[in-house]
């Protein structure tokens, strides 16, 4: 999909085929679910979807005793220590 716009017959969705030809489809409604491309397509319809990529890592560590569980952070970490390593998380 390359373009999406309000048209006379609803919403016009346009795309280019591998052979270079273009096609258009008219729809009554669309669901924008194009991942990080959603922002661009929503903008074509005059909407603002604040979707953007972020980078993060996560790990799973055994927290066998109550003291470890109580001390474990639960959200938005910048880094976490596991044994002798520090691993980014978020
Ligand atoms: C390496 C990696 C690991 C991840 N691990 C996890 C995890 O462990 N747990 C977790 O919860 N999340 C994880 N995520 C995040 C998760 O994959 C995304 O949050 C989720 O897939 C977003 O879903 P979505 O349907 O919004 O978008 P997407 O899954 O990105 O789907 C968007 C779709 O739109 C299509 N599209 C885009 N542009 C166009 C276009 N112009 N024309 C036609 N189609 C188009 C794409 O081809 C795709 O099929 C991970 C992501 C990555 C990259």
UniProtKB/TrEMBL annotation:
Residues 68-90 are annotated as: Disordered. Keywords: Oxidoreductase. Transmembrane segments: none annotated. InterPro entries: FAD-dep_OxRdtase, FAD/NAD-bd_sf. Residues 16-75 form the FAD dependent oxidoreductase domain. It comes from the Bacteria. Pfam families: DAO. This is FAD-dependent oxidoreductase.
């Amino acid at each position: 999909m390359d373009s999406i716009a309000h048209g006379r017959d609803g919403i016009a969705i346009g795309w280019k085929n591998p052979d270079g030809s273009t096609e258009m489809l008219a729809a009554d409604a669309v669901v924008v679910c194009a991942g990080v491309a959603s922002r661009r397509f929503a903008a074509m319809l005059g909407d603002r979807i604040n979707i953007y990529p972020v980078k993060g890592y996560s790990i799973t560590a055994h927290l066998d005793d109550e003291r470890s569980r109580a001390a474990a952070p639960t959200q938005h970490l910048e880094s976490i220590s596991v044994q002798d390593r520090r691993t980014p998380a978020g």
